[in-house]
Amino acid sequence: MTEATYPQCRIVPLRMLSPETAERLLNAVVGIPGIRRLMVNGPSLPTIVPYGPARGKPNPNTNRKTITVGGSDVQLRVQVGMVTVEVTDESVIDTIKAACDGIFTQFPCQVQVGKFMKTQATLVDYAKYGPDADEIMIGLTDPKRTEPPVIIQGLHK
To answer: Over the Cα atoms of the chain, what is R_g?
Structure first.
């Protein structure tokens, strides 16, 4: 199990991020040593309209792009609205704040410190990954998602 002693912070911009700004932010954060886990949240960008009168039709959206984060190509499934980060110690959070200050010059963002990710396996984690689940995946499970999560190698080493 993951220890609950790892500090966590959440980057909350005033606006939803464009794919270009999200790519700059994620690359700046991923490049900081001491990051264990990172999770991106925001409204879904489905390829097909899931409900309403246009249900089943293609959903053209200019924010659904492939970005490069830490040398890996990542297909954006959400419009980035918040980034949650788990770090090895408190000093890394100050480095994250400095990186955010360099990126968010047109509009502000907050870096909130607290506990935002689950640190013990939930029933959904157990059902999806079993009793020997990777501790990095604990608390990041979406029970409705059929696609596997995007994992950027080398992030949690």
So the answer is: 16
Give, as one character, the DSSP assignment of residue 148: P
Tens of pLDDT, residue by residue over 15-27, are 999 999 999 999 9
Hey, what domains does the chain have and what are their CATH numbers? 8-116 (3.30.70)
**Bigger pLDDT: 147 vs 96:** 96
- Residue ranges with strand state E in the chain: 8-13, 35-41, 66-69, 72-75, 82-87, 109-114
Q: What are phi and psi of 103, to 5 degrees?
A: -90, -40
Q: How many CB atoms lie within 10 A of CB 54?
A: 11
pTM of the model: 0.82
In the chain, where does DSSP find H-type helix? 19-30, 90-103, 123-129
DSSP letter (8 states) at residue 95: H
